[in-house]
Amino acid sequence: MSLSFTGIVYFPTSFAILFIVYRFYLSWRESGKHDSFVFFLTFLSLALVSFCGAFAGTIFAHDSFGIKIMLIVSSFLLSFANALFAYLFIYYSNKKISPYYGFWLVFILGIALSVVTIFSPVSPTLEKSGGIYWGLPLYLYFWRFLVYFLGSAPLAIVFFKKYRTEKDGYEKNKDLFFILVLFFILLVVFVDFIVEPLTGIHALISEVVLLILAVIGMVLYFYLSEKEVATKEKRFKKLVENMGDMIALIDEKGVIHYANSAHKKFLGHDSKNMINRPIYDFIHPEDHQFVKERLHFTNEDSIHDRFEFRMIHANGTIFWVETFGSFLLDKNSELERIVVASRDITDRKLARKQLEKNLREKEVLLKEIHHRVRNNLNIINSLLRLQSRNIKTASDVKEAFQESEKRVFSMALIHKKLYDTDNFSVVEMKSYIISLAKELLFSFGATKKIRLNVEVNNVSLNLDSAIPCGIILNELITNSIKYAFPNQSDAEISIDFNRNSTHFELVYRDNGVGMTEKIDFNTNDSLSLKLIKMLVEQLNGSIDYFTQNGTTFVIKFPITDELDRF
Fold this sequence. Notes:
single chain, alpha+beta, Rhopdopsin 7-helix transmembrane proteins, Beta-Lactamase, Heat Shock Protein 90, five-stranded antiparallel β-sheet, five-stranded mixed β-sheet, 15% strand
């Protein structure tokens, strides 16, 4: 096998084009874009054309028939490649026209050229210069150039227009690469099929031009590729560094190989000082095993995972994070690195905890609402039944209704206070007692006549305890307003409500005229006192009274509900 200069040039050029074919294949497989697939087929055809030239200049260098066969095969391949260029021209420039119009126009012209070449007198020879003279009739040279020109020139113009208007650096470099490739093709065929036949300088010029341009093209391609990679890497690093979430790159042992600047904000550690340290140094000890299990690589199905755990700030503060782990695999599907993105969710966890608490309280409230309504109606029914026994005359009816109205109001006020707060389980008693007392003073027109003192130290009751206490206070305040201050200018009502670890203590006093007779709660005919006694018993409590400097009632009852302890 003799080597010609043509063979020496075309072989490395063929492999260079094959490398570009491989890059287009990867781009097509990754993106699935239609134009990437067409470019893959186009450059594959051009690579085969270049191999035909290489074989013609090596294996068939002294075989005219072999060179002619390579020439005819390359002619068919060139028809297909240039037809694909014409397809891409219409694909990019006019969406209203089918790209196949351009394809078939150039392809039919190229096939016709190939058929004519078969039956034409072709006398290719190896010249002394080392180049191959194709020996085609002049009109076939022009015809071949026309096929190249119709395929490459319009597409080059499209990419040139895109290059001038493109803003993205990566897309701009890609457009420049296509412009140079198409210009390179047109320049080579112009020298090969126009300059050489017209000037009579055969073969060697086109091969030299092809070699020079191939070297320049590959150097430029690698330069643009490296520039693209460097630009993407710089852009990606800037993006990651400015993200609000913590981004880290760790290996399968948990050793940190990269950490962005957000770690300084959330962990209080400089990201540079975290490199080569285990990520578990910054995780709560109780969560170490949990995180190890979640980051453990088992199979492709677990390549993505999202989980929550606790981390520790440099000052010792513990906070919750939500972490998303993505596994980076090498070409053998082996674990190479783990990308860990973490976000502070402490506020969200606290909000969720409060929401869950509220939901539990509402569920309890909904479950008990029937029970509470029934109990309230039973209390109202008992109040009205007791009240009806004391009605003797028509005037008693009006008074009975007024007293019943105030008792029902004391119960309604409990519910109002309950629903005015975020806690639906307990009633804050200080605001309730003040509201109840002021409403009763106002209803009797005694707001300016009687001074009110209320001292309640952090007492909250559930409904089952709050309603009896409310009615008891209603009876005591009403009795004081009606009977304790007949002609007294310094009238005063004091209410103290306290608790210890086991009991509540409600102390009610007024500085009125007091009671002249000793009270027996079991035999007294007063509806109000009977009601107070009944409600104290409902609370499982006790009641005492004193008549020095007015009247004082001391009511004690145990803490029986867990909600009453807070």
